[in-house]
Amino acid sequence: MSAETIRVGALRGIVMRGPAINETLAFYEENWGLKLARDDKDTIFLRGTGNEPFIYGLKNDPTYGIEYIHFAMPDRQSVEALHRQIGDRGGYVLGEPAEIGDGFGGYGFEMLDPDDRRLRFTCEIGIIDPIDDPVRPRKISHVVLNTPDMGGTEKFYIDVLGFRVSDYSADQMVFLRCSTDHHSIALVRGNYPSVNHVAFELPNIDGFMRSIGRMKQMGQVPSWGPGRHGPGDNPFAYFVSPSGFVIEFTSELQQIDEQAHIAQIWSRDNPENMDRWMTAGPPTPAMRAVMQGRPDPGFRHLRANS
Ligand SMILES: [Fe+2]
Questions:
Q1: What does the alpha-carbon distance between residue 142 and residue 74 come to, in Å, rounded to a whole number?
Q2: 15: CA distance to ligand 1 center in Å?
Q3: What's the gap in Å between 41 CA and the centre of ligand 1?
Q4: pTM to 2 decimals?
Q5: How far does residue 191's CA lie from ligand 1's centre (Å)?
Q6: Ligand 1: distance of its center to the CA of 144 in Å?
Q7: In the CATH hierarchy, which fold is given to the domain comprising 139-291?
Q8: What angle do CA 137, 139, 140 make, to 5 degrees?
Q9: Per residue in 152-206, pLDDT tens?
Q10: Are strands 65-72 and 246-250 parallel, antiparallel or unpaired?
């Protein structure tokens, strides 16, 4: 895409939805290591140890899926420029940029991606003091999405939102970046739109292992891992949340040098490409099934022509 493409800023977080998902708050606080930021009854917001006022949300809803994925923009000018770009390049925006009325403030807008997921872009959200605790997640590292249209969805994230390809895993996955992180979004070839997993970043490998230890002491071992991925070079340990979503602890995600990085296609033929430490092995059929997720209809009904 042309050099003047406006790029989406860093991933701030994600709000999930599902039946009685609010009731899983204790799991996220005590086991997973997040802290309550605000309880709006309908939606619970949790923070990590970084400076975002919230990184994860739980919204009670009859449907399992994503309420919205939240990205940062540097200022109002870039919010408005991105909004124009999305309109010009065939994306579907949900209204004009405006003050966000959810209590955390900020200025931004929302749109729908090709699978009708809601994406939110904001600036001017007040940052908060970080917490010095290496055993709790600091931020959302990345969100991995299953899509029935890999090519079309990849093209949309690149052309309309300014993401760049960091790597491919065979013809099954594409890793997309919007910051120095190797990937903030990754797409997996799927039969329908759904959440594959959401990854939470620990500040270092010790915090990563100790977080796995906390989970183990509370009775839950990883459903896959610990191991270390090839693409992104990040350690992984996957768990299943009480609502049936796959969640990951990770750390040390590869940082991309824009001048030097060349995307490659990682073969799946060599196990060490997928499992650098050779500790994890491939995911079990049961784990693969949970990662396929439950069909997420998204917000198709918000399209004017739906
Ligand atoms: Fe991941």
A1: 19
A2: 17
A3: 30
A4: 0.97
A5: 19
A6: 7
A7: 2,3-Dihydroxybiphenyl 1,2-Dioxygenase; domain 1 (3.10.180)
A8: 105
A9: 999 999 999 999 999 999 999 999 999 999 999 999 999 999 999 999 999 999 9
A10: unpaired
